[in-house]
Q: What sequence folds into this?
């Protein structure tokens, strides 16, 4: 593989006006350290920096490959315009099933949000990240349920109808043992008064991507209206302690 082949996905031709002096300029995407460390792609750092010129600058702002987000984004804009297909299908299908089976609105809301971090942000420790991202906008109980679903997914609770997931045997292998912090947090959750809120998230947390019908996100508009305090300025621009996380999903390729 030549260097140019390796760069290809990280270079974007920028559309500039005819009379712009730097017509033909490229925007380069530097892979995020957290997504590239250990993969070989971290070695793009030096070569991309070396490619910098007036005609090759780094990506800042709207990546033309991505749909443009509205100025004041709502929760569902992230579902529609940013989240990957697997996450969208998984969240919408799980939440719809909970809704159809008569679960209360806070449970449906927690299920709709439980893997939000996987959508366009960070996979590792996704329950913890997801809980932080939503904390200013939902009840403490919903954020709690999202945080602890990650640990509870590893722990069977046959009395409540939850077995260790088949999908985890496939994802991680039969010999995988969760680390101590996961076991400790699962035990803490087990003793908590909100245990069942998080356990319900895991009960509806089923992977059935292939056989699921498309779900219209608008069926959740009313529940979101009642359980998610959408900031007037838009997610990312309300000055909250987590606004930067939402901005990172709006402009996920920013160099800095
Ligand atoms: Fe999850
Ligand atoms: Fe999930």
A:
């Amino acid at each position: 593989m030549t260097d140019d082949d390796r760069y290809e996905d990280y270079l974007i031709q920028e559309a500039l006006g005819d009379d712009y002096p730097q017509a033909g300029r490229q925007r380069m995407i530097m892979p995020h350290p957290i997504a590239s460390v250990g993969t070989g792609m971290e070695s793009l750092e030096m070569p991309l920096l070396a490619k910098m010129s007036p005609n090759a600058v780094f990506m800042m702002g709207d990546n033309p490959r991505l749909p443009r987000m509205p100025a004041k984004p709502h929760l569902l804009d992230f579902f529609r315009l940013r989240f990957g297909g697997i996450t969208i299908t998984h969240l919408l299908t799980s939440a719809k099933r909970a809704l159809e089976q008569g679960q209360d609105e806070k449970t449906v809301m927690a299920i709709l949000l439980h893997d939000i971090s996987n959508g366009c942000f960070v996979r590792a420790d996704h329950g913890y990240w997801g809980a932080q991202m939503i904390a200013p906008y939902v009840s403490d109980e919903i954020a709690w349920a999202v945080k602890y679903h990650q640990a509870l997914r590893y722990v069977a609770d046959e009395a409540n109808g939850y077995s260790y997931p088949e999908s985890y045997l496939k994802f991680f292998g039969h010999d995988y043992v969760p680390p101590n912090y996961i076991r400790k947090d699962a035990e803490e959750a087990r003793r908590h008064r909100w245990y069942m809120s998080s356990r319900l998230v895991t009960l509806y947390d089923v992977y059935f991507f292939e056989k699921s019908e498309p779900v219209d996100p608008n069926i959740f508009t009313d529940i979101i209206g009642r359980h998610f305090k959408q900031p007037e300025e838009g997610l990312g621009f309300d000055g909250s302690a987590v606004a930067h996380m939402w901005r990172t999903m709006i402009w996920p390729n920013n160099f800095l």
User: Anything to note?
Assistant: Residues 90, 114-115, 205 surround fe (ii) ion (ligand 2) (CB under 6 Å).
